[in-house]
Amino acid sequence: MEHPIYHITRFEIVAAYTLRIQFDDNTEQTINFEPVLHGEIYSPLRDVSVFNQVELDPEVRTLVWPNDADFDPADLHDWPEIEKDFIEHVQRWIAA
């Protein structure tokens, strides 16, 4: 199965833990990341001052944070289709 490659062209912080993200195919997603900020890599982003240090990596064209946290741009592009499963996975991981 082919995995589409998307690049983020720009983003904007629109609320706590929420980013509006634009992609190279002229689509856009607004994502509240708060429900998935758990685990070793993502928990530090629960500090909104750390979350707000997000940057656009100019080489791989995805969002990155100072602690090396990132998300696959394809996941962010397709967030409406994967959000429920992603959050359920995180909740099962927290409960374990």
Verbal overview:
This protein has a single domain (8-95), classed as NE0471 N-terminal domain-like. It has 4 helices and 5 strands, in the order βββααββαα. The protein has helices at residues 39-42, 48-51, 73-77, 79-95; strands spanning 8-15, 18-23, 28-32, 55-56, 63-64. The strands form 2 sheets. The chain has a 3-stranded antiparallel β-sheet with strand order 1-2-3. A two-stranded antiparallel sheet has the order 4-5. The chain starts with 7 loop residues before the first strand and ends with a helix. The model has no long low-confidence stretch (mean pLDDT 93).
CATH architecture: 2-Layer Sandwich
Overall average residue pLDDT: 93
Helix content: 25-40%
Trace the largest sheet across and list its strands.
1-2-3
Radius of gyration: 13 Å
Q: How many individual domains?
A: 1
CATH topology annotation: NE0471 N-terminal domain-like
Shape by Cα distribution: globular
| Number of strand elements | 5
Topology as a string of helices (H) and strands (E): EEEHHEEHH
CATH level 1 class label: Alpha Beta
DSSP helix count?
4
